[in-house]
Amino acid sequence: MTSVDKLITTSSALKEAIAALNTAEFVAIDTEFMRESTYYPQLCLVQLCAGKHAFCVDPLADGLDLSPLFDLLGNAAITKVFHAGRQDLEIFVHLTGSVPAPVYDTQIAAMVCGLGDQVGYDKLVQHYKHLQIDKSSRFTNWSQRPLSDRQIHYALDDVIHLADIYPRIRADLTANGRDEWVRSELASVGDIQLYQTDPDSAYKRIKARNSKPAQVNRLAQLASWREQEAQKRDVPRGRVLRDDTLIDLAGSNPKSLADLKKIRGFPGGETGKFGPPVIDVLKKANAMPETDWPMRERPPQRERPPVAVIEMLRVLLKHVTESHNVAPRLIASAEELEKLAFSDEADIPALKGWRRKIFGDAALAMKAGKLAMTVQKGKTKLLSLE
């Protein structure tokens, strides 16, 4: 049987294939998609593997009813296993309106296993299976048909390896008593807001420096309009208006179509199709009361803690993460360390749950002079001073 024989292109074949997975404990899932010319990712292929069953689903096949696949994604009795699944889940949320559940992300699990921050799939396969995966088809055009046997073989390998790795990584976590660590990290994956864009907050992604409140308001209204326009047309945001053009519009505040000639990069100038709606958005923004203006979130001004305290916490974090073989980013970011250096009551993950047990309590003890760090035979050691 060739790889092409495992490509599902009809509704009857998909129904039969999904039925074979419905008794599985878990299913490894991956997708191939394109989004260079669209707002929403264009789903081009879905790969699934459970036990001896591995196949690809062609969502671009004429008349293919994907309902059995969507039912599988919502089956609470089957764990859906992804690696770095944020974009895969975004696609399914767009298509179904809900987040697949339950979900397990092996990239998150790999961080808890100490394989590093944002572990790539190739590193995961190399670690658990001692294999170098073929990357030659990674950047092919997945929307072009027919798909080659080589493309399908490459796509299938991803889920076949993932299905093999999942029980191994779970066994490692269980052996180290870290199942709960991963569960707490996966809890946020099911939040549908992670995969949906709120047009009213779109302006926060645009880097505009030293903007005055009125400019921020105009930028926010323009960004919201652009987001909705891009969604409606299903085109990238930049195909509507570029970020720098929005910033220029918010700053110069043109009052008429003729004024748009002065805006560099505005498509079509005063005769462009986006001219009238943009002028209308600016007019409404300028008429808004100041109490309705959005404000850019700025970090609260606070006294900076001594640099030595921050460095001490960084060394302690490195010691703890090496001792427990866990990725540093999973415990505390640089900003969170700074908050901890400033306050023992900082509202950060490092002072909660399992992170507090392995790092937070030690950090507080060190700040209070109850714990010291020494070097013995080239290795750091913690020394209680109580």
Can you describe this structure in just a few lines?
The protein contains 15 helices and eight strands. With 386 residues, the chain is an alpha/beta fold. Strands 1-4-3-2-5-6 form a six-stranded mixed beta sheet. The chain has a two-stranded antiparallel sheet with strand order 7-8.
Secondary structure layout:
Elements: E1 7-8, H1 11-19, E2 26-34, E3 42-50, E4 53-57, H2 67-73, E5 79-82, H3 86-96, E6 103-105, H4 106-112, H5 121-129, H6 149-175, H7 179-186, H8 213-233, H9 237-240, H10 243-252, H11 275-287, H12 307-324, H13 328-331, H14 334-342, H15 353-367, E7 371-376, E8 379-384
Helix pairs in contact: 4-6, 5-6, 8-10, 8-11, 12-14, 12-15
- Mean pLDDT across every amino acid position: 92
Order of helices and strands: EHEEEHEHEHHHHHHHHHHHHEE
State the distance separating the first and last CA atoms. 69 Å
Largest pleated sheet: 6 strands, mixed
Ranges where pLDDT stays below 50 over 5 or more residues in a row are: none
CATH H-level name of the largest domain... which superfamily?
Answer: Ribonuclease H-like superfamily/Ribonuclease H
Relative helix content: 40-55%
CATH class of the largest domain: Alpha Beta
- Indicate the CATH architecture of the largest domain: 2-Layer Sandwich
Strand content: 5-15%
Contiguous helical run count: 15
| Integer count of domains | 3
Number of strands: 8
Strand order of the largest sheet: 1-4-3-2-5-6
Description:
It is a single chain. The protein is α/β, with parallel strands linked by helices and 386 residues long. The protein has helices at 11-19, 67-73, 86-96, 106-112, 121-129, 149-175, 179-186, 213-233, 237-240, 243-252, 275-287, 307-324, 328-331, 334-342, 353-367; strands spanning 7-8, 26-34, 42-50, 53-57, 79-82, 103-105, 371-376, 379-384. It folds into three domains: 3-195, Ribonuclease H-like superfamily/Ribonuclease H (Nucleotidyltransferase, domain 5, 2-Layer Sandwich); 199-292, DNA polymerase, domain 1; 307-384, DNA polymerase, domain 1 (Orthogonal Bundle). It has 15 helices and eight strands. The strands form two sheets. It has a six-stranded mixed sheet with strand order 1-4-3-2-5-6. Helix 4 (106-112) packs parallel to helix 6, helix 5 crosses helix 6 and helix 12 packs across helix 14 (334-342). The chain is flat. The termini are far apart. The model has no long low-confidence stretch (mean pLDDT 92).
